[in-house]
């Protein structure tokens, strides 16, 4: 049987793993992967510890496919934790059973059991990623998804000579789940990470890390495509390469109008493709990643590095240092995000909903609730419209599909219970929230506008929000309180950026629009793992349409039992 190219540049990415695939009619292919969840000892920063991995790899294997392909990933769980895997950014049309978030679209895969995620890639091409979607296990269980255009379809930008994945992450010296449990016992945030990583490696600025440094060889005069993914749990990150400009050509697997920048900002959950020209004096240059934080919060502000090395240059040459924006450079961030625009051509249109059927306004807040098991009697929490989401004991999609009563309600409010000066002086009284598994019901094919408003409940902070099952258009953002009378007049309804994860500015707001044409139960949550675990999440129940191909597909036979 004929094989297709796997686009695996093993000289650059030795950790890639490809299983195999075969042709079926219409030039679509079936790509099959085996993911064995297993524990492996890994050393970083002079510390060795057992971590949960896929196939013993950290980061995990890259999924390669083409637009139109079917991807089968058989996940077998050999670890002592329950497991589920989310294919971040894949739309999973009518097929939420393959989406992956534990207790939202499936119950987790128990130790010794397996589940095959069956996914068809429709109308998508570019860089996405996959990660564990239970507990904090995505600290080590993650990898890239590379979707090539259909055979014979070129990129809408200059063809690169080579490409490489740059997956940004975080590393804890101690067991992450134990760190989280300790924080929960105190009712406080867990200890911050000990390092950031690039392709699982912190780089030579950290102790014991000379051999734990990712290096990429380039040839003078060639152009390279970097597929950059922020797999960090809690940090927005700047990324730059010393002496080299980055030309942004894609975000969250959607082509953009190209623009050049000395650095990029990438929030947890987001992906960014950039072109890099190897046009500098042949030498060694640091690639670097460091957090952005413009709120009064403590974070792991250490810099991860990798090396861009010109062919023929000795390893003894000291790399040139990168210049990254300052830790709190809000001006750079606002300017950078304002440059992001959808390509919006005849072939790749930006189909922005111009008429809105349903308007939603969600406030993002931190809070403090009573906690009988916490040492100080209280715990930090988070909420949308003052509701802290309570995870169910069975999958919400199962409950919806089989009409199981008592699992969730569909009375999540369209607006907060009380209007106030959301971004005024810090609010430190009456910080309790309501608890509930409350969802919002959305009519099939209706158009939705959602304004996400940060608040100064305890503190303002930037929040990257991810919506499963959909892309959306970011039609507007701003600092301060959203003004429903004045701000919509400034919305970009022509070529706004299209993403699956939006960064809500610190002390500001973001407005998104999407058409609810994918029936099922779709999770929406802050992609800062800390805030997700505190309850900063909800889900949409998108109703079935009337057509035969507009309803949720039946569940697969091997769906994990609850």
UniProtKB/TrEMBL annotation:
It is found in: Secreted, Extracellular space, Apoplast. This is Laccase. Its cofactor is Cu cation. Residues 1-28 form the signal peptide. Its EC number is 1.10.3.2. GO terms for molecular function: copper ion binding; hydroquinone:oxygen oxidoreductase activity. It is an enzyme of class 1 (oxidoreductase). GO terms for biological process: lignin catabolic process. Keywords: Apoplast, Copper, Glycoprotein, Lignin degradation, Metal-binding, Oxidoreductase, Repeat, Secreted, Signal. One of its GO terms (cellular component) is apoplast. Residues 37-151, 165-312, 411-545 form the Plastocyanin-like domain. Its main location: secreted.
């Amino acid at each position: 049987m004929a094989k297709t190219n796997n686009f695996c540049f093993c000289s650059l990415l030795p950790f890639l793993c490809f299983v195999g695939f075969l042709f079926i009619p219409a030039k679509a292919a079936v790509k099959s992967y085996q993911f064995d969840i297993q524990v492996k000892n890994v050393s970083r920063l002079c510390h060795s510890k057992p971590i949960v991995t896929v196939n013993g790899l950290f980061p995990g294997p890259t999924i390669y496919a083409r637009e139109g392909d079917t991807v089968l990933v058989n996940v077998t769980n050999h670890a002592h934790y329950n497991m589920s895997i989310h294919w971040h950014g894949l739309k999973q049309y009518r097929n939420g059973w393959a989406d992956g978030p534990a207790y939202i679209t499936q119950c987790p895969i128990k130790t010794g059991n397996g589940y095959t995620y069956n996914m068809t890639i429709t109308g998508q091409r570019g860089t996405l990623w996959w990660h564990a979607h239970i507990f904090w296990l995505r600290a080590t269980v993650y990898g890239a998804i590379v979707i090539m255009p259909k055979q014979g379809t070129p990129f809408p930008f200059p063809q690169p000579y080579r490409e490489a994945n740059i997956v940004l992450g975080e590393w804890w010296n101690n067991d992450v789940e134990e760190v989280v449990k300790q924080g929960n016992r105190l009712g406080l945030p867990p200890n911050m990470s000990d390092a950031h990583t690039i392709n699982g490696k912190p780089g030579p600025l950290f102790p014991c890390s000379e051999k734990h440094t990712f290096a990429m060889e380039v040839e003078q005069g060639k152009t390279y495509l970097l597929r950059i993914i922020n797999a960090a749990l809690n940090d927005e990150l700047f990324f730059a390469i010393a002496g080299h400009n980055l030309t942004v050509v894609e975000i969250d697997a959607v082509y953009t109008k190209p623009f050049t920048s000395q650095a990029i900002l990438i929030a947890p959950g987001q992906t960014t493709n950039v072109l890099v020209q190897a046009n500098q004096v042949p030498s060694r240059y640091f690639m670097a990643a460091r957090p952005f934080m413009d709120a009064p919060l403590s974070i792991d502000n250490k810099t991860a590095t990798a090396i861009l090395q010109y062919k023929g240059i000795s390893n003894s040459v000291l790399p040139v240092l990168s210049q990254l924006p300052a830790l709190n450079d809000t001006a750079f961030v606002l300017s950078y995000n304002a440059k992001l625009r959808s390509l919006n051509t005849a072939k790749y249109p930006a189909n922005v909903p111009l008429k809105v059927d349903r308007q939603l306004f969600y406030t993002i807040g931190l809070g403090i609730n009573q906690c009988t098991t916490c040492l100080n009697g209280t715990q930090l929490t988070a909420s949308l419209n003052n509701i802290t989401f309570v995870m169910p004991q069975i999958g919400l999609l199962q409950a919806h599909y089989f009409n199981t009563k008592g699992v969730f309600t569909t009375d999540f409010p369209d607006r907060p219970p009380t209007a106030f000066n959301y971004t005024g002086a810090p609010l430190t009284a009456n910080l309790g929230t309501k608890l509930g598994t409350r969802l919002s019901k959305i009519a099939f094919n209706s158009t939705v506008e959602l304004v996400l408003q940060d608040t100064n409940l305890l503190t303002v902070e930037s929040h990257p929000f991810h919506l499963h099952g959909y892309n959306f258009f970011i039609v507007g953002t701003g600092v301060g309180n959203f003004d429903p009378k004045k701000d919509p007049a400034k919305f970009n309804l022509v070529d706004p950026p299209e993403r699956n994860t939006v960064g809500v500015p610190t002390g500001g707001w973001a407005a998104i629009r999407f058409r609810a044409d994918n029936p099922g139960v779709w999770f929406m949550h802050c992609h800062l793992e800390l805030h997700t675990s505190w309850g900063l999440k909800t889900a949409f129940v998108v109703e079935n349409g009337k057509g035969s191909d507009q309803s949720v597909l039946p569940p697969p036979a091997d769906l994990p039992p609850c």
